[in-house]
Each structure stands twice: as C-alpha cells, then as structure tokens.
Amino acid sequence: MGLCHETISIEPIYQAMLNQMAEVFAGTRENFTEENLQARARGTVIMALSNKFGHLPLATSNKSELATGYSTIYGDMCGGFSPIKDCLKQMVYRLCDYRNHRSEAIPQGVIDRPPSAELSPNQLDQDRLPPYPVLDEIITRYVELDQPIGTIVAAGFEEAVVRRVAGMVLAAEYKRRQGAPGPRITRRAFGRDRRYPITSGWRDSGLIEDT
C-alpha cells in the first residue's frame, strides 16, 4: 500500500508505568487498570509520532465499542480523527472483506481470529460483551431506531442482555464526549444526532429502566 511501517515496542513503557505505580497498587488485584495502561502506552507513542512528524493520528474505536464503553480514553480513543466511529463491529468486518476483494491489504488472519483487545492472555471481547451479532442488533434498535427496551425484548432478545447493553450505552456517554470527530454514515450517529446527559437524577428514579 506504499505505507511507511515502524515497529515500536510498548513493553518498556508499560513496565515503567507498572513499576511507577507498584507502591500505590500494592495489595490490590490486577484488573482492567493494568490492561488499559497498555492501550495508553500505545496512545502516547502514537501522539509522539504525530507531534514530531505532523501526522494525523487515527482513533480506532468502532461504534459497537463506543456504544458500550469498550474503548479506552487516551488509548484506542486517542487520535485526531475517528474514521470508523459510526461503523458497528460487523460493518467493520464487511468493510475489510470489501477492501480485500479489491486487493489483499488486510491479512486474513486478522479477520479470522476471534475479536480481542489483546490486553491480557486469551482475552476475548465476548468475555465482557454479548456476541457481536446480538450486540450490534440491540445497538441498532436502541440507538439508531430509538426503540424502548420492551420493544427490543419483544423482538426476541433476552431482557437481561438488552437492559445490560442499554445501561452500558448510557454509562459510556462521558467517554463519547471526549472522542475524536468522524464521519456519519448511519441514520443516527453518536454526537449531535444522539446526546444523553452524562449524569441525571432519572438514573436513580427507576424510570430510566423503560427507556
């Protein structure tokens, strides 16, 4: 594709961050905190390259991740432009197939392997999220079609899963407000098309459960 390619290890940066936080973290159990440090180390490297060479860094979060908060502020959300922010995960795969039909640019192994943030051994997206075919359909109905939870459940989705996804969408609003701009390609993108209060008394009233 005529691109310049560099490999820069984040391991020394990551280990330095862990060492720096070791005293403060002492006695605590490892969790997503240590995982996110890896994404933020990458973000720091990307922004350093941007500052030094004047490149425009691209944020890599897709709509499924932004909807559920399955993205890291100052990590994979780091960038000046977000080209796939309005593409659900399954659409990203379709775009990959389309690009490879023109000429093979994306290794097939990247497409075939189970989705993973690759921040811990054997980690899979499905460990923390519903399967993408289910998740993307719920997001489409809840966000783009503005369907209430009851309508989505009546369409055949498990109520607990729908409520969980809806709760994740609402809770991740503060992250999306800090995301890079990107193209709108669906009938309702996050941002000007759909804004929700970052915090609200309605959350504690119980009324939000039926939205």
Give a structural overview.
The chain has 211 residues and is mostly helical. The protein has one domain (56-210): HUPs (Rossmann fold, 3-Layer(aba) Sandwich). The protein has 10 helices and no strands. The protein is globular, with a radius of gyration of 19 Å. Residues 205-211 have low confidence and may be disordered.
Low-confidence segments, given as residue ranges, are 205-211
Helix-residue proportion: 40-55%
Please tell me the overall pLDDT: 89
For this structure, the CATH topology is Rossmann fold
Rg, alpha carbons: 19 Å
Helix vs. strand class: mainly alpha
Shape: globular
Return the CATH architecture.
3-Layer(aba) Sandwich
Strand content: under 5%
**CATH class wording:** Alpha Beta
User: How many individual β-strands?
Assistant: 0
Q: Report the span from N to C terminus.
A: 46 Å
Count of alpha/pi helices: 10
How many distinct domains?
1
**Biggest β-sheet description:** none
Describe this structure in a few short sentences.
This protein is an all-alpha fold and 211 residues long. It is built from 10 helices and no strands.
What labels describe this entry?
211 residues, mainly alpha, Rossmann fold, 10 helices, disordered C terminus
Write the layout of secondary structure elements.
Layout: H1 11-25, H2 32-53, H3 63-68, H4 89-102, H5 108-112, H6 132-144, H7 149-154, H8 159-171, H9 173-176, H10 202-205
